Amino acid sequence: MQLIKPDVNIDFIGKRNVAFILSAVLILVGMVSLVVKGGPNYGVDFAGGTLVQLQFSEVTTAEQIKKVLIPQPLTAATVQQFGDEANEFLIRTQETETDLQGLRGKILQSLGDHYGVENVDMRRIEMVGPQVGEELRTQGVMAILYAMIGILIYVTWRFEFRFAVGAIVALLHDVLLTLGAFSLFGKEIDLPIIAAFLAIIGYSLNDTIIVYDRIRENMGKHIDSGFAFTVNRSINETLSRTILTSTTTLLVVLALFIFGGGVIHNFAFALLIGVLVGTYSSIFVASPLLIVWDSRKAKSSSAQ
Questions:
Q1: Residue of 80, 110, 128, 237 with fewest CB within 10 Å of its CB?
Q2: Same domain for 123 and 151
Q3: What's this model's pTM, rounded to 2 decimal places?
Q4: 114-146: per-residue pLDDT in tens?
Q5: Are 103 and 147 part of one and the same domain?
Q6: Residues of the domain holding 174
Q7: Which of 271, 278, 279, 280 is nearest to 253 (CA)?
Q8: Are 165 and 134 in contact (CB under 8 A)?
Q9: pLDDT: is 182 or 119 the higher one?
């Protein structure tokens, strides 16, 4: 199936400066948001603490739940509605107890006294110590870093170093934009989100490698037309495949985002942003960076 004619000739490379400015602005907005909010909004996995998911048989509000639980049995906590159910809530607190069942009992007793024991259902309770949370956060960052190093080595071996640099910059671009989106929308970052970041890296790299393969094939065909023409021609030739792949992937991720429920909502959100920016970066970041590299190398050679 081919949505776009093979002879299409859209001037993607000619728009590279506009694309670079747009990417820089979006990344800057995300980074400013992170600074203003004091860093990423880490979940219990990384920040440590206790997470409790509750379901009530009667209608209640987050404010009412906080009044019941604070200052006893919890000294501080955040309560928010969870998923699409109006009577389901998540409670997050930085407090940890070695006796998790004891904390479970205290919470259920306090809520049961107010709402009635039969009207409160504790769906789950999870606890992560602060030291464990810090270790998990470090390991998550290192996993992304190791993935980047492996990609740099692989792309250098398969293509050239300039291709590897373009791919890595594009992947950093995707991760930073997704991280910025999480900050702007106030979403938590936990272990599943690190998995989503790694999935985004893999998806974006796959798109980039497809374009890079076509550039390498065309370098001998259009040698008289210049490198910029070759890159733009290669993007156009793979455009149909890129759009088809991205569209089908987006449909699946969108279905997860809408119908997957609260447990995987943030994970699906990360993939949704990642697929969009990954497709964008393979066209407007990774490939145009080869032109920038080639132009600077030519200027350097002429200066000598």
A1: 80
A2: no
A3: 0.81
A4: 888 888 888 888 777 767 777 878 888 888 888
A5: no
A6: 13-42+132-303
A7: 271
A8: no
A9: 182
